[in-house]
Every structure is written in structure tokens, then in C-alpha cells.
């Protein structure tokens, strides 16, 4: 067997988003999901035939390995189910815009009805010059996308490996909605688990400010929703943040009693 593919956590576990696009704007995805459900029932058992070695970003943690099914294994064991249910799977590796540089992987799972599921994943940069390694990494990412898209288990369960769990890295996925689709409903707003775990406005803002400019644009809507949710419960307890959630004034000012108007008898 070949030597394990060596990856960092960020490169091994990029965040994934999927956009659901009906055949017509405002249409439904019923036929697509019926076909996908039938195909999943026909998939053959997938064997985890490869090894990956992950080097955590934290240098104090030891590297670990896990087994996974390679792309050829997944495609082979799901081919009959996809074909018999009129599902087509295609993946394109294309250049990003000239101002961004780098490449991205666009994956499309389409149904004969015209409905489809799409994903676009930015490829983390760093080894483009090493063609052989870069090609292997692209293949790894293609496999990483296809598994969740088809709903198949292609990796070892890492829940018991506390040192090896992903999630401490900033997501590298950039959401994508084809400009030709005029219906905004198919895609859910991008969400970041890093922001979702924030317990206070300060913690949320600190995490958001650490994002790259690209990820700030990507997760801004999620950040603003969480900011509002964290801020709202404090309307009745303005001293918790030092500001009033209703008018943004310092809590001491907002909580100060109104100036007493002298009574006529006191004059």
C-alpha cells in the first residue's frame, strides 16, 4: 500500500457547503431527492482502502492517521445506483478569478429533471509547484466532497480522537450560487461553527475579526444574525455588556434614573 497521504487539519477537513437548485426558479426538489434516496439504497458497501496522516496545527499534539475510501472506490461502488436513478456526477477543477488566484473544485450532482446539487470548494494553496503531490491532493478533495454529497460514509469516525478532531481552523470553503439562477431559495446562508460556538458578543466579534477578508464577506450574514441573537437577551440586563441593546448608550447612562421634576409644594 502507498505511504499515507500527509495533510494538515485545515487541508484534510475543509468546510463544505451544498447548494440545492431546482429545475425551475421556485420549483421543488422532490424528484431529485426521490432519485437520490433510491440510489443510496442501491449503493454497494464501500471499503476504506487508504490511509491519511494528519499533523495538527498545535505542535504539542501528536500526528494521527485514519482510514478512508479513495475516489475510485466511492465512484465504483455508487455507479450502478446513480446510473439506474438518472443521477449524473461531474467535477471540474477550474481557475479562480485572476485577482484571487489559485483553483477551485466545482462538483455537480444532477438529476434528469434538471434539479441539481452543487458545491464549490476553494483549494487551500501551498503545494501547487509539486505537481504530483498537488494532483493527489486534488483527488483527495474531490473524494472528500463526493462522500457527503452522496451520503456515504467514506472516513473513519474520529469522535474518539480528541487530539485529531477538526474545527479549530478557519474554514476555507467559499459558497457559490450560479449567477444564472434567479431563485435565491436554493442556497442556505453560510454558517461558521467557529462563530456559532461563541458565547458572548465579545467572543463572537473577536472570532469574526480573525477571519480573512474573504471569509468575513462569506460569513458576515451569519455573524450579524448571531450578534443580534446574543445582544437581544441583554435588553433587560444592560450591565452585562456595558451597553444598552436598544440604543447603544453606555449601560450606566441607560440605567440611570430620570431626573426628578420638583413638586409644586417643594418650591
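^ C-alpha cells above, recovered residues below v
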Amino acid at each position: 500500500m502507498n505511504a499515507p497521504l500527509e495533510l494538515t487539519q485545515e487541508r484534510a477537513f475543509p468546510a463544505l457547503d451544498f447548494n440545492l437548485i431546482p429545475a425551475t426558479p421556485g420549483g421543488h426538489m422532490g424528484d431529485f431527492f426521490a432519485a437520490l434516496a433510491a440510489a443510496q439504497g442501491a449503493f454497494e458497501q464501500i471499503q476504506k482502502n487508504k490511509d491519511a496522516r494528519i499533523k495538527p496545527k498545535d505542535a504539542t499534539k501528536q500526528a494521527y492517521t485514519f482510514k478512508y475510501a479513495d475516489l475510485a472506490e466511492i465512484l465504483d461502488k455508487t455507479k450502478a445506483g446513480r446510473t439506474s436513478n438518472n443521477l449524473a456526477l461531474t467535477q471540474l477543477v477550474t481557475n479562480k478569478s485572476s485577482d484571487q488566484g489559485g483553483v477551485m473544485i466545482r462538483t455537480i450532482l444532477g438529476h434528469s429533471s434538471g434539479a441539481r446539487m452543487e458545491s464549490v470548494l476553494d483549494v487551500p494553496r501551498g503545494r501547487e509547484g509539486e505537481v504530483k503531490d498537488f494532483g493527489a491532493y486534488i483527488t483527495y478533495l474531490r473524494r472528500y466532497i463526493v462522500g457527503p454529497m452522496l451520503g456515504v460514509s467514506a472516513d473513519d469516525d474520529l469522535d474518539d480522537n480528541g487530539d485529531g478532531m477538526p474545527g479549530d481552523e478557519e474554514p476555507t470553503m467559499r459558497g457559490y450560487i450560479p449567477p444564472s439562477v434567479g431563485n435565491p431559495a436554493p442556497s442556505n446562508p453560510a454558517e461558521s461553527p467557529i462563530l456559532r460556538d461563541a458565547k458572548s458578543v465579545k467572543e463572537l466579534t473577536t472570532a469574526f475579526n480573525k477571519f480573512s477578508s474573504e471569509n468575513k464577506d462569506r460569513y458576515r450574514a451569519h455573524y450579524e444574525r448571531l450578534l443580534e441573537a446574543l445582544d437581544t437577551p441583554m435588553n433587560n440586563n444592560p450591565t452585562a455588556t456595558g451597553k444598552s441593546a436598544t440604543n447603544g448608550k453606555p449601560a450606566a447612562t441607560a440605567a440611570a434614573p430620570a431626573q426628578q421634576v420638583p413638586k409644586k409644594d417643594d418650591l
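The two ends are 97 Å apart (CA to CA).
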